[in-house]
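Human: If only I could read C-alpha cells as easily as an amino acid sequence. Underneath my words sits a plain record pairing an amino acid chain with its C-alpha cells. Take your time, and here it is.
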Amino acid sequence: MDLWHERPRPLRPSHVRISQSLDLIERLEALPHPPEVEALLVPDEIHFFLRHATWLNVLGRASDFFDRHLRARAHVSAE
C-alpha cells in the first residue's frame, strides 16, 4: 500500500485521510523548533478506535513515548 498516493475513499465523519495525517506531520516537522513527532498509522481502523487490540497498541506506544520524553525532562529538571 502506497500511503503517499492512496486513492481517496469516501469518508465518514469518523475517518481521517492518511494524507491529512502526513500533512500534519510535515507541518510540525517544518516548524522552527519542531516537536518530537512519532506517528502510528492504522489504516483499517476509524478515528475512534473500535478494536481492543488497537487500543492496547496505541496506548502502549503513547505510554512509551511519554516515558521517554517526559520522564527524561523531569529527571533533568530535578537535578
